[in-house]
């Protein structure tokens, strides 16, 4: 297990000029589209510790531009206690919400790499869907566009 580099994470979450605009959705077996509408989207600076946590939940940490998914049935790992669960890991992130169309925007980002995590969940007798994660590189204060689906 990697150490959490709190100083790096805190510095990375300082105000910058870049942004990430994106959407998150999953396709149902019948062809319907379900978005992340109304659900949280998390932005986490890429650290070795964060990558370890994503590997624990998703089986691997995503590469830049890759989307990984854990189905709702596998989300028991998300709710389980990750050890060690460093409290400051949870404070050095940003959270936004997807709008009604399943789109989100994260503004004021420093250049660097981030993990973006979104949940897409619906109910048909029981919860279905899952969590999506990707890695995004912000550079030169520009806006990055991401589409999260699998």
Layout of helices and strands:
Layout: H1 6-12, E1 15-27, E2 33-35, E3 40-45, H2 48-58, E4 67-71, H3 76-79, H4 87-91, E5 94-97, E6 103-109, E7 112-124, E8 126-138, E9 143-148
Parallel strand pairs: 1-9
Antiparallel strand pairs: 1-2, 1-6, 3-5, 3-7, 4-8, 7-8
Could you list some keywords that capture this structure?
globular; single chain; 150 residues; 5-stranded antiparallel sheet; alpha+beta; 4-stranded mixed sheet
Structure, explained:
There is one protein chain. The chain is of the alpha+beta class and 150 residues long. It has one domain (6-137). The protein contains 4 helices and 9 strands; from the N terminus they run αβββαβααβββββ. Strands 4-8-7-3-5 form a 5-stranded antiparallel beta sheet, covered by helices on one side. Strands 1, 2, 6 and 9 form a 4-stranded mixed beta sheet that branches. Strand 7 (112-124) and strand 8 (126-138) form a beta hairpin. It is globular. The two termini are 28 Å apart. The mean pLDDT is 92.
Summing up helix and strand content along with how strands pair, one would put the structural category as alpha+beta
The portion of residues forming beta strands comes to over 45%
Q: Can you tell me the number of structural domains?
A: 1
Average predicted local confidence, pLDDT: 92
What sort of overall outline do the alpha carbons produce when their principal axes are compared?
A: globular
**Rg, Cα atoms, Å:** 15 Å
Q: Number of DSSP helices?
A: 4
User: What is the helical fraction, as a range of percent?
Assistant: 10-25%
SSE run: HEEEHEHHEEEEE
The main β sheet shows up as: 5 strands, antiparallel
Widest sheet, order of strands: 4-8-7-3-5
- Poorly predicted segments: none
Instruction: Report how far apart the termini are.
Output: 28 Å
Number of DSSP-assigned strands: 9
């Amino acid at each position: 297990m990697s150490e959490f580099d709190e100083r790096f994470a805190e510095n990375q979450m300082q105000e910058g000029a870049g942004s990430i605009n994106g959407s998150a959705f999953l396709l149902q077996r019948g062809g319907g589209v379900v978005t992340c509408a109304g659900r949280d989207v998390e932005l986490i600076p890429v650290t070795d510790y964060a990558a370890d946590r994503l590997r624990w939940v998703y089986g691997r940490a995503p590469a830049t531009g890759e989307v990984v998914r854990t189905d709702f049935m596998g989300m028991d790992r998300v709710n389980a206690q990750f050890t060690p669960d460093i409290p400051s890991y949870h404070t050095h992130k940003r959270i936004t919400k997807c709008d009604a169309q399943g789109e989100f925007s994260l503004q004021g980002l420093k250049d660097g790499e981030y993990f973006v995590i979104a949940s897409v969940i619906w109910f048909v007798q029981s919860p279905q869907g899952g969590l999506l994660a990707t890695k995004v590189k912000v550079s030169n204060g520009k806006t990055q566009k991401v589409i999260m689906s699998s």
